[in-house]
From TrEMBL:
Record lineage: Bacteria, Bacillati, Actinomycetota, Actinomycetes, Micrococcales
Organism of provenance: Cryobacterium tagatosivorans
One of the protein's GO biological processes: response to hydroperoxide
Any single Gene Ontology cellular-component annotation: cytosol
Name assigned to this protein: Peroxide stress protein YaaA
InterPro entries tied to this protein: YaaA
Segments for region (Disordered): 1-26
Superkingdom of this protein's organism: Bacteria
Amino acid sequence: MLILLPPSETKRDGGEGGSFDSKSLGYPSLNAQRRVLVRELRALARDPEAMMAALKLGRTQAAEVQRNRALTTSPTMAALDRYTGVLYDALDAPTLSAAARDFAGRHVVVHSALFGPVGALDLVPAYRFSHDSRLPGHPLKKHWGGAVSQALAVAEGLVLDLRSEAYVALGAAPAGSESLFLRVVTEAPGGQKRALNHFNKKSKGEFTRAILEHGRVFASAEELLDWAPTAGFRLHRGAPGELELVV
């Protein structure tokens, strides 16, 4: 089983791990692409104005330039702890049990725009780089798409895709009946369903945490659907290839 999570633009500072080493990350077939983007992003950081334009940063976010300049020398921490924001606040990785963290290390992947998919416990530095960042000469869909899809194709069993559609565009999950995109929806009194945008992140974080604490490898979508109500979630099949989490 594999759970694919999106990253977050906001990240914790610091870390207790050593400096960044792409060879320590999961999916080593992506290391060449990782090194290219890290090298080019650090080079761009020498020109703060150009970097702020490429990353669509405001004046109050100038510190993000220094983060990128120090990419290869700053301390690292587990990806699941590095990311903050609505989804990761709801997941609350620092309070997971040891067993749940171990489960996450084996079954959760975070899809970074800079590093591609990384394991939940892979060590990454603080950085700023998103799916819509514009690194000259390296359009991200072309840079990542095929390579990420090929890397993810080795996944076995149920694949639960909680990424945003913008990150799906940087590398599709494996095709198949047991590869399912999770869409968070709200239901009106008349039964009409509407997809949520920003506010879906909290539900995704809570749902992921519940799976991690449960610690069970779901062999199929049916097993997941049977379990969800016992954990307090309304989970249904949606459009082909999708599940709907009703909130």
